[in-house]
Amino acid sequence: MSHKPAKPVICFITGSAGDWGGASRVLYTNLRQLDRSRIEPILLLPRDGPIVPELQRLGLRYHIWGSPTEPGNRLAFLRALLRTVLLFRREKVRLVHFNNRPWRPAEALAARLLGIPILLHFHVVNEAVSPVIRWASGVVVVSEFVAQASLPPELPKHVVHNPVDLHRFDQGRPLREALGIARDKLVVSFVGQIRDIKGVQDFIAMARLIDDPALVFLIAGECRDPRTFAGAYSEDDLSTMIGGDARIRYIGYIDRVEDVYASSDIVVVPSRWQEPLGLIAIEAGACGKPVIATHVGGLPEIIEDGRTGYLVDAQSPATLAERVKFLIANPAQHAQMGAAARERIVRQFAAKPVAAFEEVLVRHAKPDAAR
Predict the structure, then answer these.
(1) What Rg value do the Cα atoms of the chain yield, rounded?
(2) Full DSSP string of 112-167
(3) Residue 305: helix, strand or coil by DSSP?
């Protein structure tokens, strides 16, 4: 009798128990759409959190696994190692996926001792090489840029762009009425971390260069204390930069980010650092919004300059302003660009990366032993 291979059990080790932040959003978007006739996921969560009810609704198995254990605490580390070995054996795990660089040494060592392949997922450029990275059979990278810039060069890298949940971003509800924005206003938005590397200061400088009372500029994201978070801006910092311009409005952190896109006419991504890919640009494009972004990191892999948006030099508020003014003055070009952005995201960043991720998982999983 021929043996039919069982679908592999794949253990996803997560850094978050919520659908927030780029890495977490990407993982949970993938997990919602993976073909579970081909793989059986099991998740290790660091704590209870808001993702748990959804995992239960989706029928995805999980364990609240707790915080990482470092080797310096020998007894605790050995306990964590034994606990993980027992779990991997009981569940017949055939691949361990770390959603980012390997930050849980006990779990990585357990996989190593059992001969279970380790697959890493680099959401940012990796610049250090730990023993666990050398144990990995491969790594998923979110862009060609990350693949070329990450160490070690000999580690097999699979470029899988971040996917977007089209259904979620089709459900955006405009916030204009709640924010008191008149229908005749045009809205230009910044979405993301309120930090210097994200270029929010350039967004504000851009807005102040555009002398048009018909525009509203929204800033959505969480302000943090710069004394604790290097490079962050406080609300007072933003207020100083805004300089009393009532058109520029900080609206804080918005959980339903899709509502911000639904309220916007143009989205600006003025990053100063080398963005690994640029999830904001993908999400805005999914909502049919043209994106004006800086030519850094992986953003050129999303935006087709002049067709789905514009790419400009970093730290160039004047050029950002020129592009915004051009789109406002040319509504036909604005509409065409938004439609092209949506079409590109549907074609390249919806089902396609999920299928590619699934293929990498199956390829790296330990072969099924004959019964």
Answers:
(1) 22
(2) HHHT--EEEEESS------HHHHH-SEEEESSHHHHHHSSPTTS-EEE-PPP--HH
(3) strand
DSSP-assigned letter for residue 9: E
Instruction: Tell me the whole-structure pTM to 2 decimals.
Output: 0.93
Give CA–CA dist 283/259, Å, rounded. 11
Contacts of 170 (CB under 8 A, 6+ apart): 286
Cβ–Cβ < 8 Å for 327, 338 = no
Backbone φ, ψ for residue 158 (5° rounding): -115, 115
Tokens of 174: 């405009």
- Region of residue 37 (left: phi > 0; alpha: psi -120 to 50; beta: else): alpha
DSSP 14: -
Please state the separation of Cα 98 from the chain's center in Å: 15
Residue 361's closest CA among 20, 33, 80?
33
Please state, in angstroms and rounded to a whole number, the distance separating the CA atoms of residues 60 and 55: 5
Picking from 120, 149, 154, 102, the residue whose alpha carbon sits closest to that of residue 298 is: 149
Residue with tokens 């459900």: 171
pLDDT 10s digits, 62-120: 999 999 998 888 999 999 999 999 999 999 999 999 997 677 999 999 999 999 999 99
Identify the residue whose tokens are 């019964």.
371
DSSP 301: G
- 């999303």: which residue's tokens? 302
Give DSSP secondary structure letters for 187-252.
Answer: EEEEES--BGGGTHHHHHHHHHH---TTEEEEEES----TTTSTTB--HHHHHHHHTT-TTEEEEE
Residue 54 has phi, psi (to 5 degrees) of -70, -40
Q: How far apart are CA 284 and CA 343, in angstroms?
A: 12
Q: What is the pLDDT of residues 227-283, one digit of tens each?
A: 999 999 999 999 999 999 999 999 999 989 999 999 999 999 999 999 999 999 999
**Rounded Cα distance, 368 and 36, in Å:** 17
